[in-house]
Design a protein that fits this description.
The structure holds 2 protein chains of 2 kinds.
Chain A: H1 3-7, H2 25-31, H3 33-51, H4 58-83, H5 91-108, H6 112-136, H7 141-159, E1 164-165, H8 171-178, E2 180-182, E3 188-189, H9 190-208, H10 210-220, H11 222-227, H12 232-258, E4 260-261, H13 269-279, H14 291-310, H15 317-342
Antiparallel strand pairs in A: 1-4, 2-3
Helix pairs in contact in A: 2-3, 3-14, 4-9, 4-12, 4-13, 4-14, 5-6, 5-7, 5-12, 6-7, 6-12, 8-12, 9-10, 13-14, 13-15, 14-15
Chain B: H1 17-26, H2 28-46, H3 53-78, H4 86-104, H5 107-131, H6 136-155, E1 160-161, H7 167-174, E2 176-177, E3 180-181, H8 182-200, H9 202-212, H10 214-219, H11 224-250, E4 252-253, H12 262-272, H13 284-303, H14 308-338
The chains are: A mainly alpha, B mainly alpha.
């Protein structure tokens, strides 16, 4: 077998292949997380568009997708990381830390690009520290990033005692979240455009490149991957850096949305992101997960939250519904595994 | 006199600093005690107000809810399972207890309801993980959101105040036996029981066996499901007791109790205590010592006037250092054993 044939994607088994061999539609839907998540989303959207006139309007879908973007963008990075069997719990505190520092630097140097550069640069630095501590000291990433979560939260509280207000009054600043990249024929808000860009980019990277396939190999069997010549720590470092940089980017969109950098932003954000990634078919044991699955999971959770607000229910139900959806997804996952084991 | 040549280093006479290094490297509890002593020593030196006996009684008092929750989590993590729902359990139990007290006008019924929530959620977690075979981390993550959501929805984000103002109930937190507060006694009793169960009984040995290799444990006839189920109940009940204590502290059921990452703090403390994330390694006394070390650092900094929110920064760094210390210590233990010490 030549090296070329190994590298061709059509000849390597895609990670979902072994579970997607059902025959009936029901079996197909059950066979992959993407399947049943799509089913769920269709049901929720049909229900909401019947019950609410506002739901299927261009404006509401724009708002819904913008909110989804905040979680999904970080979620894409987290998917890569979790495929490689690592996890980053510090993304929630990143929202506060990066938000506060980006707002402060915007107040000092009022150029939009400065803010974005600071946000992404801080993300890269935190990612490098996370990966350095995880890979060089050999502490599990769960603990390293848990510590980093507290360090960054503490740093955010130390650098400002209250929210950092918008003193620069840049007109372009609020447009980062509220503005649109195009207005005709449909209005596409900036966060949605950014999310779409990263969705396409990372889907291609994961499915079509050697990097993506090495990630799956690394996650499903690290020792075998290392023995077969995969640069374990280089790959993992890239994943850590991507995750943190994307978290920095969503932090920047968050301060644009709130128009202030708040030191208590993003409490529980990390668990929402990880929950969505796991719901999308990833596993803490690594080697599983797709970008599409993560996107569908965040879209499902976002649609439910949007629906709860639209229907005028108590907005606190959002928490409970998120929990119940995660439970249902894990249940389906365990059923799926049992069915595939038996067949 | 000609010196004797030893064929194998293991037969060499044991002497020098390595003997002492090996002793400390092997004794987890002792090395953690040493860290605790260093931390206490530092604050004694740097902060005059820490030179009172009261500070240390208060420390034990403050960390007792964390200690109690850590007992349950440590036992669960020894069997390689997780429970992320304990933070939400604090709020759930507190709100359920105070609501039941208001509805029935009876303190004991309220406490009973509070403890029953632990039993109920524990059974639910245990059932889902062991019988439906769902992954514990995800299941309890879902449970964490679900419970918090139920609490938020039910209370509408307002604290539930005890209308009868039972002073008996607040005694659960403020009561004293001699110089020792009730929660501290409760925590120590639970730690003692857990220590006894883990080290002296077959059940305890089975927990380690499951954590070490679940497949092997199942094959060798250990009732894995039943034991895991019971561990989830234990962990939820421990969290419920912590929730009761926290509710007694202010005589209210607070909807945001434990929302600032209580579950992650407890897991971090247990891991600092040398309990392995993949199960099968560690012991309860080290976990308790680690809780005390983290508590002491927090308390000392508060005495020095550092705000609680800013302390997070230091605690994060200390956590990293302590986990790294464990790694180095284990490596030294293995290396020195190979050298024959």
């Amino acid at each position: 077998m030549s090296a070329e044939s190994i590298a061709r994607p059509s000849q390597t088994r895609r990670p979902t292949d072994d579970t997607s061999r059902g025959t009936t539609i029901g079996q197909r839907l059950l066979a992959s997380p993407e399947g049943y998540l799509t089913g769920f989303i269709v049901l929720v959207w049909i229900f909401l568009s019947i019950r609410s006139d506002v739901f299927l309007t261009e404006r509401n879908i724009g708002v819904l997708l913008s909110q989804v973007a905040l979680i999904a963008i970080t979620g894409f990075g987290m998917t890569l990381l979790m495929i490689a069997r690592e996890v980053d719990l510090s993304v929630g505190s990143m929202q506060a830390f990066v938000g506060v520092l980006a707002m402060q630097s915007l107040n000092r140097w009022p150029y939009l690009l400065v803010g974005i550069a600071v946000a992404i640069l801080l993300g890269v630095i935190v990612g490098l520290i996370n990966s350095g501590l995880t890979l060089k000291l050999g502490i599990t990433s769960f603990i390293v990033t848990l510590a980093m979560m507290q360090i960054l939260r503490g740093a955010a509280y130390t650098s400002t005692s209250a929210a950092v207000q918008n003193d620069h009054k840049l007109s372009s600043f609020k447009r980062v979240f509220n503005g649109a990249i195009i207005e005709d024929p449909v209005r596409i808000p900036w966060p949605v455009a950014i999310m779409a860009f990263f969705f396409v980019l990372f889907s291609l990277i994961v499915a079509k490149t050697t990097f993506g396939r090495s990630l799956y190999a690394l996650g499903s069997n690290p020792e075998a991957a290392a023995l077969s010549g995969i640069h374990v720590w280089r790959l993992k470092t890239i994943c850590f850096v991507i995750t943190s940089a994307l978290a920095g980017l969503s932090a920047f969109m968050l301060i644009a949305r709130m128009n202030s950098g708040q030191n208590n932003a993003g409490f529980g954000f990390e668990l929402q992101v990880i929950g969505a990634v796991l719901l999308g078919g990833a596993s803490l044991a690594g080697g599983k997960g797709t970008i599409l699955g993560t996107f569908l999971a965040t879209l499902l959770l976002g649609s439910l939250n949007n629906g709860i607000t639209l229907m005028g229910y108590n907005p606190n139900w959002q928490w409970a519904v998120t929990g119940i959806i995660i439970l249902i997804a894990v249940l389906l996952d365990s059923v799926r595994r049992r069915v595939t084991q038996e067949s | 006199m000609a010196s004797v040549q030893y064929a194998h280093p293991a037969k060499a006479p044991r002497q020098g600093w390595k003997r002492y290094a090996a002793f400390w490297a092997r004794n987890e509890e002792l090395s953690l005690l040493l860290i605790l002593a260093i931390v206490v020593g530092f604050f004694l030196y740097a902060e005059p107000s820490s030179r009172q006996r009261k500070v240390y009684w208060d420390l034990l008092w403050e960390v007792s809810p964390t200690l109690i929750a850590a007992v349950g989590i440590a036992m669960l993590m020894l069997a390689a399972q997780f429970d992320l729902s304990i933070g939400s359990m604090l709020a759930f139990t507190g709100v359920a207890t105070v609501t039941a007290m208001n509805k029935t006008d009876s303190m004991w019924l309220g406490i009973l309801v509070g403890l029953a929530t632990g039993l109920l959620i524990g059974c639910l977690n245990g059932f889902l993980v062991t019988y439906v075979r769902m992954q514990s981390l995800m299941t309890t993550l879902g449970m964490m959101f679900a419970l918090r959501g139920l609490v938020y929805t039910y209370t509408n984000k307002t604290p539930v105040i005890d209308e009868n103002q039972f002073t008996q109930f607040t005694r659960l937190w403020f009561g004293k036996v001699g110089p020792v507060r009730t929660p501290v006694i409760l925590a120590f009793i639970l730690i003692a029981i857990a220590w006894f169960v883990l080290t002296q009984t077959e059940y305890g040995r089975n927990i380690y066996a499951i954590g070490g290799n679940e497949q092997a444990a199942r094959v060798s006839g250990i009732p894995v499901r039943r034991i895991l189920f019971s561990l989830f109940v234990i962990s939820s009940c421990c969290a419920a007791i912590s929730g009761l204590l926290i509710a007694a502290q202010t005589d209210t059921g607070y909807f945001d109790a434990g929302v600032q990452g209580f579950e992650l703090t407890v897991i971090a403390a247990v891991v600092l205590g040398g309990v392995s994330m993949s199960g099968g390694q560690g012991n309860i006394l080290s976990a308790a010592l680690a809780v005390l070390i983290l508590g002491m650092i927090g308390k000392g900094m508060r005495l020095m006037g550092i705000h609680t929110t800013q302390q997070l920064l230091v605690i994060g760094v200390v956590m990293l250092a302590a986990v790294y210390f464990h790694r180095v210590r284990r490596r030294w233990a293995v290396r020195l054993r190979n050298e024959g010490y």
